[in-house]
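The pair is listed for reference:
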Amino acid sequence: MASADEACRLYAKRFRIETFFSDQKSRGFHLHKSHLSDPMRLSRLLMAACLAYLWTVYLGALCEQDGWVRIIHRSDRCDLSLFKLGLRLLDYFLNEDLSIPVAFCVSI
């Protein structure tokens, strides 16, 4: 590394990537349990998981925006990521037989 600032910048990117990987694996979708070895099948699974991840993060943002956090999580503070909030909100909607919001926009 040329400087400490460069190292910190790169580490910050790594931190976000590690969080995404753990959401895809042990803390979320458990993709590591698929045991897929065929590249095409794995590619399709990863594309579907990434779309599901975006939708789940959208649900987490909706959870914060519309005040669902106090219903699905503690009321004094929230220490969950948008992904975990989204998973909990989805679980709540399914258990309560509520309509699940599916529309969201991705802008470039």
Observations:
- The radius of gyration is 17 Å.
